[in-house]
Amino acid sequence: MKKLRLALAVAVVAFITVIAPSPAQAYPGVEVTVSSATVTGGQDIQITATVDPDVDCSWELTFMDQEVSGEGNAITHTFSTPEVDSVEEHEAVAVCFFDNGVPAAAGGGGRAALGASLGTVEVSSEGSAPQTLLPLDDGDGDDDSDSDDDSDDDGGSDGGDNGGLLPNTGGERLAWLIIGGMLVLVGGGVVLASRRRDA
Fold first, then answer.
1. First to last CA, the chain
2. What's the pTM?
């Protein structure tokens, strides 16, 4: 009788272990999305993080050594940015800590102490996105010493940021278009010539 009770207890524990959801099963595919923006350095930048599926998060949002926290299924904050001399990209990182609904005995890791006190485990999901800072292009050359070095004699500033436009790094598009057109014509001529020979 004692062996039967022990076998039954082992079977119950094994069954609960098999059907109990793991942290990944409780909220499969929790994804944090962070907005991306481009601003002139020195201006404020607004960053938003959302979570899918819609779970209640304890947020930590970090950008350039500035960190804010919040609660809910999304967080939005406006961060200050420094003035920059050239185009810079900085990563904004958002972490969503959430209760995964798994009993504390079945999971662990992360900030599990808080979840354990509530009887469940707290896990996290993280997302990030680049934020682009552009240099100030005032064109008058009297704002700082760097802009004086990069200014033309006619007062226009062309010190590397090309008036805020992105550089043309795609090569000579017109030349490749002409070469491609010529290849199509030559190929068409070869096909026509071969058909006339066969006829």
1. 95
2. 0.48
